[in-house]
Amino acid sequence: QRPVRIAPSILSADFARLGEEIRAIDEGGCDYVHVDVMDGHFVPNITIGPLIVSAIRPLTQKPLDVHLMIAPADPYIAAFAKAGADIITIHAEAGPHLHRSLQAIRAEGKKAGVAINPATPVSALAHIIDDIDLLLVMSVNPGFGGQSFIPESLVKLRQAKALIGGRPIDLEVDGGVTPDTAAEIARAGADVMVAGSSVYAGNDPATYAGRIAAIRRA
Ligand code: DX5
Ligand code: ZN
């Protein structure tokens, strides 16, 4: 099995010192920087837009993993691509034309991801599986950091792994990843783990490398 990659979510960063918070996870050994975009419509919270993505782009060489929790997503795909996103993930539930949206992301030259909420079956992705580079299983209801991992997500991760088969698609999990849940999640087949509160807890940059390493060790 390939080593798991860790994608700290800046949702739990101290936004008054966002630059420093990103440099600290970069130097702390993160693999991706996960950016949670929320619109107050698809999810009950509002976070950041392309302006912030372009502002943080120069701070790290690591891929920016941009998770769009917005509906509709299509009108903003080009803006996030131009802002410097490397991976753009949209929700399967966010619009009626998932196939078209994924094509739009790839047309921008970016990696296309699709996320599914806890209630959405993996089988919803059966007919677009060749159109994605990343499959994100949400292990909490999207909108907020710091929620508990939903155990049923382990079943979905195994199903997603089976659906992916030998394709070069990363299986990502987002929500409630901690050193305590990471081992089981890895066994279920996740390639990339998003971790917000378990990396940024306390907002002390001196601790981030250790927190990332703790998840990796687990
Ligand atoms: C939830 C976001 C997550 C969130 C994870 O809507 O998509 O990326 O930041 O936070 P934790 O790791 O605290 O569950
Ligand atoms: Zn996320």
TrEMBL record:
Cofactor(s) this protein cannot do without: Co(2+); a divalent metal cation; Fe(2+); Mn(2+)
GO molecular function, one term: metal ion binding
Main function: Catalyzes the reversible epimerization of D-ribulose 5-phosphate to D-xylulose 5-phosphate.
Protein name as it appears in the record: Ribulose-phosphate 3-epimerase
Enzyme Commission number(s) from the entry: 5.1.3.1
Entry's cofactor comment: Binds 1 divalent metal cation per subunit.
Catalytic activity: D-ribulose 5-phosphate = D-xylulose 5-phosphate
Residues reported in the UniProt entry to bind substrate: S9, H67, G143, F144, G145, G146, D174, G175, G176, G196, S197
Key word Signal present: no
Active site: D36, D174
BP GO terms, sorted: pentose catabolic process; pentose-phosphate shunt
SUPFAM superfamilies, sorted: Ribulose-phoshate binding barrel (SSF51366)
Annotated InterPro entries: Aldolase_TIM (IPR013785), Ribul_P_3_epim (IPR026019), Ribul_P_3_epim-like (IPR000056), RibuloseP-bd_barrel (IPR011060)
Keywords: Carbohydrate metabolism, Cobalt, Isomerase, Manganese, Metal-binding, Zinc
NCBIfam families referenced in this protein's UniProt entry, alphabetically: PRK05581.1-4, rpe
Family: Belongs to the ribulose-phosphate 3-epimerase family.
Gene Ontology cellular component terms for the protein in this record: cytoplasm
Residues the entry annotates as binding a divalent metal cation: H34, D36, H67, D174
Gene: rpe
Organism: Arsenicitalea aurantiaca
Domain of life: Bacteria
Keyword Lipid metabolism: no
Family matches, as HAMAP family: RPE
